[in-house]
Amino acid sequence: MVSAKRQKEMKALGFLLQNDKEHYSVRFLSKAGNFTVEELNNINKIAEKYGRGYSGLTTRLQIEVPWIKDEDAEKVIQEAKALGLRHGGTGQKVRPLVSCKGTVCLHGNIDTQAICRELDRKYFGTDTPHKCKIGIVGCANNCGKANINDIGVMGRCVPKFDSDNCVGCGLCVTNCRQKALQLVDKKIVHNKNLCVECGECVRVCNSNAVTVKEKGAEIFVGGRFGRGMRIGDSLGKIFKEEEIVSIVDTIMEYYRQTGNKGERISGVMDRIGKEKFIADVLNKID
Question: How many domains does the chain have?
Fold first, then answer.
């Protein structure tokens, strides 16, 4: 039986005690949800040697190898280091960052994985008042559920319509899943209230009747999911792709300055008011 002290020490290293209180699942960390073939082969070696020959995926795109005996834990740590594998991902820290495949997905409006790798390099495993989750998605499909993370980034593409160039083909209408476009007298009518700025109309238009007015990301703060659920609040504007990392820098700095121990971003916003939190962040940016 693993002692409580030992359990806490190992959890900080990404070794989570299983319900039999005798074995761990060790969590190996991806880079923006990606592992190289070599990394996967090395994880397989550890699973075969110290586990029971299988591994599982976590909800934050990491790989866990279960059934690691306590007496083998140090050997696994040493071998993982020699093989170049990272493990961890728990505690009052920035948790493993999650990105969708927007970088290569045909719906992606931003380079989600490059942004995720940069933020991972700067923030993963760093101390915060409480656990902090960051998610990046490329479009309104929101596959990675950006707005239920403490900080969420969602790619947006705001369309611009030129009726003089419109030939009335209806391609954009057919491809608009939100039904935000209509063809009236062979010209496009845009309903901004229904539009989610996914950019699909821009991608399918062949006549330059729909072009990019603004492209980048909307950023959400204060989301969470689990025992307490809260949808994140938008900072209220579209940021250019090259601004995203610096905006997250500002949010993280403000959170660390303002948050009390044991308080997630949502807790800070509940305590001081979401309007003040957002206004203070935007003032620091300006």
Answer: 2
**Token digits of residue 120:** 């991972």
Domain boundary among the residues 56, 82, 108 is at 82
Q: Does residue 79 have a pLDDT over 90?
A: yes
pTM attached to this predicted model: 0.93
Reading the block at residue 129, the tokens are 């008042």
Q: Are strands 134-137 and 98-99 parallel, antiparallel or unpaired?
A: parallel
| β-pair type (15-17, 23-28) | antiparallel
> Rounded mean pLDDT of 58-70?
96
DSSP string spanning the chain?
---HHHHHHHHTTTEEEPTTSSEEEEEE--BTTB--HHHHHHHHHHHHHHSSS--EE-TTS-EEEEEEEGGGHHHHHHHHHHTT--B---SSBBPPPEE-STTTSTT-SS-HHHHHHHHHHHHTT-B-SS-B-EEEESSTT-TT-GGGSSEEEEEEEEEEE-TTT-----HHHHH-TT--EEEETTEEEE-TTT-----HHHHH-SSSSEEEEEEEEEEEES-B-SSS-BPPEEEEEEEPGGGHHHHHHHHHHHHHHHPPTT--HHHHHHHH-HHHHHHHHHHHH-
What is the chain's Cα-based Rg? 22
> Average of pLDDT values for 21-49?
96
Triad 30, 36, 39: Cα angle to 5°: 75
| Same domain membership, residue 220 and residue 147 | yes
